[in-house]
Design a protein that fits this description.
The protein has about 210 residues and is of the alpha/beta class. It has 7 helices and 6 strands; from the N terminus they run E-E-H-H-H-E-H-E-H-E-H-E-H. Strands 2-1-3-6-4-5 form a 6-stranded mixed β-sheet.
């Protein structure tokens, strides 16, 4: 089983922990990680783009001129797409872009993304942040000690942690997420992953199931 160093907030090693191959030692199958990232991005799309069709453009209720005897082409509405100020043909309409992936595919993609980060040496596990109250200054100091200052970092916590969230939210390039909300896109989009030790333990337990 792979082993990960556990560090304290001063970047001193305080031990090691074994992690399961099923989560931290997976080789990504072709297309699985890509499909998961595309799925995540599609699910974030609002799909609110819209144009007005002939029936939605205001005005045009009256027939511009009589059907016959004018010498001009017949026309039923001044809001025809052929006219200036008319409706749009085949323009975008509100739609839902979201779709679901099989649970096994989502799990496989997440494990592959985490394994790739570990293989590249871009995962750090911290024993605890030790923040009793929100403090951006203290969080900046912790990240600096760990060599993460100014680097794109995803902090993974085991559950709701306002002290960590509020301390990190104003630091550029740093994002906080709960381990239950972790997804392949966020893992791939951030250069470094900073795990709270309990988060790794939760992933380990989930990997045994």
């Amino acid at each position: 089983m792979p082993e990960i160093d556990i560090k304290n907030k001063n970047n001193t090693s305080v031990g090691k922990m074994e992690v399961p191959e099923s989560v931290f030692g997976v080789t990504a199958k072709a297309g699985v990680l890509h499909s998961a990232v595309v799925n995540f991005l599609a699910n974030q799309r609002q799909g609110t783009a819209a144009t007005k069709t002939k029936g939605l453009v205001s005005g045009g209720g009256k027939k511009p001129w009589k059907q016959k005897s004018t010498g001009r082409a017949r026309s039923g509405s001044s809001r025809s797409p052929l006219w200036r100020g008319g409706g749009t043909v085949f323009g975008p309409q509100p739609r839902d872009y979201s779709y679901s992936l099989p649970k096994k595919a989502r799990k496989a993609a997440l494990n592959a993304a985490i394994s790739g980060k570990l293989a590249d040496g871009e995962i750090i596990v911290i024993d605890g942040f030790g923040l009793e109250k929100p403090s951006t200054k203290d969080m900046v100091s912790i990240l600096k000690n760990l060599g993460l200052a100014g680097k794109s970092t995803l902090i993974v916590v085991p559950g709701k942690n306002d002290a960590v969230l509020l301390s990190a939210r104003n630091i550029p390039g740093v994002k906080v997420t709960r381990v239950t909300d972790l997804n392949p896109y966020e893992v791939a989009a951030n250069r470094w992953i900073l795990f709270d030790r309990q988060s790794v333990e939760m992933l380990t337990e989930a990997g045994k199931k």
